Amino acid sequence: MADLSSDFVGIKSPNPFWLASAPPTDKEYNVRRAFEAGWGGVVWKTLGSEGPPVVNVNGPRYGAIYGADRRLLGLNNIELITDRPLETNLEEMARVKADYPDRALIASIMVPCEEEAWKAILPRVAETNADGIELNFGCPHGMSERGMGSAVGQVPEYIAMVTRWCKQYYDRPVIVKLTPNITDIRKPAEAARNGGADAVSLINTINSITSVDLDLMAPQPTIDGKGSHGGYCGPAVKPIALSMVSEIARAEATRGLPISGIGGVTTWRDAAEFLSLGAHNVQVCTAAMTYGFRIVEEMARGLSAWMDEKGYRSVSEIVGRAVPNVTDWQYLNLDYVTKARIDQDACIQCGRCYAACEDTSHQAISMSPDRVFEVIDEECVACNLCVDVCPVENCISMVKLEAGETDPRTGRVVSGEYANWTTHPNNPMAVKAAE
Ligand SMILES: Cc1cc2nc3c(=O)[nH]c(=O)nc-3n(C[C@H](O)[C@H](O)[C@H](O)COP(=O)(O)O)c2cc1C
Ligand code: SF4
Ligand code: SF4
């Protein structure tokens, strides 16, 4: 059976599934139950400085985006870091770590961007025997207005500076949690590495307003007639997180920097995708909040079964496997030609493919009077939209033209050779190079 054990920057856990810093990890009672359910590790809900705990709103904190079946696709929150006293959290962390030595326990920290503030909290965290710290440079609301969270994560110089303080005053692994609310994720990741970070984790939540109450004319969740932007997460953010993880895994300046992948992980497959794009483990928040702690059972069972099927013996064998296949657009093979094919036996004649193709400008699907839908190869540009909108899985597939076949749309014979934009005759830069 596949070995699910994980070693993330020297932090060992029985599996690569950690709970992300959030309400599920806000107290001892929860974390103990999470460990009993099988989670490999937790990142404790973010700790703040000593003093009066932060104050949360007392109205609704969350908003959601749903699929047609009311399955939760995206969650938005306006919650802050832990609102429990620092001392209480530290005592609980120490007790839990002592009772679960084989699980990873990470302290997430967000204190003002001043050396004294970090110097004060780090020894106290070290006393809990936590396996490492995660610097929360990500929260996009509430704390960022006070110069913390994403306000730090958006300035690479600050990231490097704070990371350096942490490496100076703390002797266990330092993970820097990145905000996605930035144009180029490689810059903060590079700054974290320059500051001496052992790893980065991403993504934290994305600036968002989920919806507007049109009677109140106010964003939701609405607090006494007003709303503010919050942080978006859940399955809807996974594509953004996957792309950012892959960028850090590919970039020269950050290649090899260990990554903890976060954002919409709900199933074992999501986790495997993050691992394949360069994450060394994954963290989960929304899925645990939506379905409960036991979701980890399915994740672990599913990942293990898939690894057995594929012959992967350890998690590390999956890490980064797909990275060499992530490329820039200009290197995609322009001589790879496909056409849509409709399986008439599977088709339920709903007509969605027809409407989409017709009105998206290709007019490549015909509809007969008795509602038989067929692809017109002379028009099909192989965009994949019909596959995307068809309600029947695998009813439409994209079939590759073999070398020697003629594309009836362009009249060109498929060469079977690899030919990309860098050498294409229409590319002015290619012409220049040839001259
Ligand atoms: C209600 C809520 C509270 C959160 N609080 C924190 C926090 O205190 N510290 C932190 O680093 N991230 C916090 N996060 C962000 C999560 O740790 C995680 O980065 C994000 O939700 C993306 O993962 P997901 O799609 O699995 O939810 C919070 C998320 C939610 C939904
Ligand atoms: S692949 Fe695109 S162009 Fe071709 S039939 Fe489908 S929707 Fe139309
Ligand atoms: S969308 Fe799919 S099921 Fe509906 S008509 Fe087209 S091929 Fe048939």
From TrEMBL:
CDD domains: DHPD_FMN (cd02940). Residues 338-370, 371-401 form the 4Fe-4S ferredoxin-type domain. It catalyses: 5,6-dihydrouracil + NAD(+) = uracil + NADH + H(+); 5,6-dihydrothymine + NAD(+) = thymine + NADH + H(+). Keywords: Iron, Iron-sulfur, Metal-binding, Oxidoreductase. The keyword Signal does not apply. The keyword Metal-binding applies. Its EC number is 1.3.1.1. One of its GO terms (molecular function) is dihydropyrimidine dehydrogenase (NAD+) activity. Belongs to the dihydropyrimidine dehydrogenase family. Involved in pyrimidine base degradation. Catalyzes physiologically the reduction of uracil to 5,6-dihydrouracil (DHU) by using NADH as a specific cosubstrate. It also catalyzes the reverse reaction and the reduction of thymine to 5,6-dihydrothymine (DHT). NCBIfam families: PRK08318.1. Heterotetramer of 2 PreA and 2 PreT subunits. This is dihydrouracil dehydrogenase (NAD(+)). The lineage of its organism: Bacteria, Pseudomonadati, Pseudomonadota, Alphaproteobacteria, Rhodobacterales.
